């Protein structure tokens, strides 16, 4: 993705037919951009945990996810 936006993330989730059995991690800058886009769209309200279409969106804390890339994790143990 060129830039992680709310619309781009929704499209990614739908196109890849993701379910709540996965979570998405994003580079901290991409995560911040997405959160700001989400807040602008939803009147400065955000749910915890942060989800889009039922998929939890997490900030990468390992330094392994490049900016503007999406990492899909298996969330079911």
How many helices?
2
General form: globular
The stretches of 5 or more residues where confidence is low (pLDDT under 50) are none
Helix percentage range: 25-40%
CA distance, first residue to last residue: 29 Å
Structural class: alpha+beta
Q: What sequence of helices (H) and strands (E) makes up the elements?
A: HEHEEE
How many separate structural domains?
Answer: 1
Overall pLDDT: 90
The gyration radius over C-alpha positions equals 12 Å
Strand content: 15-25%
Task: Describe the structure in brief.
It contains two helices and four strands, in the order H-E-H-E-E-E. The chain has 77 residues and is of the alpha+beta class.
Characterise the protein shown here.
This protein has 77 residues and is an alpha+beta fold. Helix content is 31%, strand content 22%. The protein contains two helices and four strands, in the order αβαβββ. It has helices at residues 6-15, 28-41; strands at 22-26, 51-52, 55-59, 70-74. It has a four-stranded mixed sheet. A hairpin with a 2-residue loop joins β2 and β3 (55-59). The N and C termini lie far apart (29 Å). The relative contact order is 0.30. The mean pLDDT is 90.
